[in-house]
Specification:
Blueprint: E1 7-8, H1 28-36, E2 40-41, H2 52-61, E3 72-74, E4 78-79, E5 91-92, E6 94-98, E7 104-111, H3 113-116, E8 126-127, H4 130-143, E9 148-154, H5 157-166, E10 172-175, E11 186-188, E12 191-194, E13 202-204, E14 208-211, E15 216-219, E16 229-231, H6 240-260, E17 271-274, H7 289-306, E18 312-316, E19 335-337, H8 338-343, E20 359-365, H9 366-383, E21 389-392, E22 394-398, E23 404-408, E24 413-416, E25 421-427, E26 440-442, E27 450-456, H10 457-469, E28 493-494, E29 497-498, H11 501-510, E30 533-535, H12 544-573
Parallel strand pairs: 1-2, 2-3, 3-5, 7-9, 9-10, 10-12, 18-27, 22-30
Antiparallel strand pairs: 4-8, 6-7, 11-12, 13-16, 14-15, 17-19, 18-21, 20-27, 22-25, 23-24, 25-26, 28-29
Helix pairs in contact: 1-6, 7-11
């Protein structure tokens, strides 16, 4: 039999509700990965979601540093202070594994530039330039006698292609971060790049050969009869030992959910809601039906918990991990379980250390609400889809091409126009905001009235930092009397506990009208979008000065011609 290596490119912690057990002192994902025999893993951006202290406790719970002899962790551009507890847990810059046939395979790990942007909780851990770290790692591995060099990369395929071009000597890149499913590996020069999607939807398989004479690695599969991807679905039988571990972890998760919901929910496999259609998280950079569902839940349930009318709710696309897909199991067609539901909105934690970002309740002026919309458009243009906001209680028209006037070349600082949002209206009706509603009032620039806004803790902590860099987009969270507050002062509590986004969505779903089967059903108005976010193409803002100049020039020419004509007529009469 040929040697086989099992590798993960990161993001095993966070996202799934099982990750919540990390906040309860367990390491469910890594425990299973060790049992499955993973050889090498790296650290993705979501491993930092709960902060480096929790990550250190997570690795310790899984048996590190001793477990590094079984499953090596490579993180070559992760800079860990010597005084931090992570420094003593066996994380390596490079690693060489000698296979049964004598081949020496060298590994290094990277967190990409884009991924680093999603690690706000990683301090005091920092990250060095990935290409410089890769070049140093390749040199170190070559000097140590590695025959084949593999980069375990949480960078995404674009950065990985750039890496392959910039750093010679990398034979294979096992990639992650962007959740892309590469049906066939990318070949860049002599480097093979593979990525197998997300959430174990597929097992990536690379059959490789190494020629000692030419020092070349070749790909042997990738054809229809020898694919590079194996779907991991119900057709793949479960290993009994792994099933037993999963059952034990599920019991622990059920107890945690029961504790957090005050006994209302106690089984992650229980059906919460039924839907006859997908409630989608696509397309990107757009209003999405599941975004409407989530923000409606935040606004309506947030109103119930705070006891005060909520005008607006907003959530970032990057916090929405998936849509609601009708179940297809026999006897459960169309049903959505508690696990599936909270899996879509269960990221992060609050200051209390319990799972999920808590709701934030704060007041902003109408002008600041418009700035929030401008921030969404600007950040989406600069950093991609994750900062494209979804809204409840609003509808707006915008042109993304008007977001940035120009960028200062020395500081690479974008100068926003604050004119990307063409119009905005607030919903003045009650209940859910549907397509045919006419209950709207303009939300004008300069509006100093205070409005009650619900969002999540992550965004509430992030948004004010935008204003520190770009004062024209400054925001100040306030109480209903206009007194400034910090994000920690705005956390929503119920029964003395932080009230989470996932709890709002769960309770909103469970509170929908029931169908003939007695199960709450997703209302039909979530089958399509409702015109809350409308993209328009207008005149680019950089053309405004030119158009103004041309208009003035035309008026000037027209005036001069009229003046000359009038002068000639007076001369002829004389």
């Amino acid at each position: 039999a040929e040697p086989v290596l099992l590798i993960s490119a990161g993001d095993y912690l966070s996202g799934s509700p099982f990750a919540w057990l990390a906040l309860d002192g367990q390491a469910p994902e890594l425990e299973l990965m060790l049992a499955l025999g993973y050889d090498v893993i790296t650290i993705g951006n979501h491993e930092w979601d709960y902060g480096p202290d929790v990550l250190a406790e997570y690795l310790q719970a899984a048996g590190y540093p001793a477990a590094a002899d079984r499953t090596a962790i490579v993180a070559s551009n992760t800079v860990i202070p010597a005084t931090h507890s992570l420094a003593a847990l066996g994380i390596q810059s490079t690693y060489i594994k000698t296979l049964e046939n004598g081949l020496r395979v060298g590994f290094f790990g990277l967190l990409g530039e884009a991924a680093v942007g999603y690690t706000p909780s990683a301090q005091p851990i920092t990250f060095s330039d990935q290409q410089a770290a890769a070049a140093a790692a390749v040199a170190e591995l070559e000097a140590a006698g590695a025959d084949v060099i593999v980069a375990v990369s949480h960078c995404g395929e674009d950065e990985e292609e750039e890496l392959a071009q910039a750093v010679p000597g990398i034979d294979v890149i096992i990639g992650g971060h962007t959740h892309e499913l590469l049906e066939e590996p990318l070949i860049v020069g002599k480097t093979i790049i593979a990525q197998a999607g997300t959430q174990l939807s597929h097992l990536g398989m690379l059959e490789l050969s190494y020629n000692r004479g030419t020092d070349q690695v070749s790909l042997r599969n990738g054809t229809a009869d020898r694919p590079c991807l194996l779907p991991l679905d119900t057709s793949v039988p479960m290993d009994p030992a792994i099933s037993a571990q999963v059952a034990r972890l599920t019991q622990d998760l059920n107890q945690l959910v029961e504790r957090m919901t005050g006994g209302r929910f106690s089984d992650v496999s229980q059906t919460v809601i039924r839907t006859d259609f997908p409630v989608s998280d696509k397309p990107e950079f757009s209003e999405i039906t599941y975004g409407n569902f989530i923000t409606d839940a935040m606004r309506i349930i947030g109103e119930q918990v705070t006891g005060e009318k909520v005008d607006f709710a907003f959530e970032a696309y990057g916090v929405i991990r998936d849509g609601l897909t009708p179940g297809t199991l026999p006897g459960r067609a169309g049903q959505v379980t508690l696990f599936d539901l909270v899996n879509t909105v269960g990221l992060g934690s609050g200051p209390d250390g319990t799972p999920g970002y808590p709701l934030i309740s704060a007041y902003f002026t109408g002008e600041e609400v418009r700035r929030i919309m401008e921030v969404s458009v600007l950040l989406s243009e600069l950093d991609g889809k994750n900062y494209f906001f979804q809204y409840s209680g609003l509808r707006l028209e915008y042109d993304p091409d008007r977001a940035i006037l120009f960028t200062l070349p020395i500081k690479n600082l974008p100068i926003p126009t604050t004119r990307a949002v063409l119009s905005a209206e607030r919903y003045t009706g009650s209940g859910v905001q549907t397509e045919n509603d006419t209950d709207y009032a303009p939300l004008k620039r300069g509006d100093e009235q205070l409005y009650h806004v619900i969002t999540d803790y992550y965004l509430a902590a992030y948004l004010p930092m935008v204003g520190e860099i770009l004062p024209s987009l400054g925001l100040v969270m306030k109480d209903k009397d206009g007194n400034p507050l910090q994000p920690e002062d705005c956390i929503v509590y119920r029964d003395g506990q932080e009230f989470k986004v996932w709890q709002a969505v769960l309770e909103y779903a469970a509170g929908q009208p029931t169908g003939d089967d007695g199960i709450p059903a997703v209302p039909n108005y979530y089958a399509q979008t409702t015109g809350r976010i409308v993209k328009l193409d207008t005149l680019p803002i950089w053309l405004w000065p030119l158009v103004t100049f041309l208009v003035v020039l035309c008026l000037l020419i027209f005036g001069i011609r009229r003046w000359r004509r009038a002068r000639r007529e007076r001369t002829m009469r004389v």
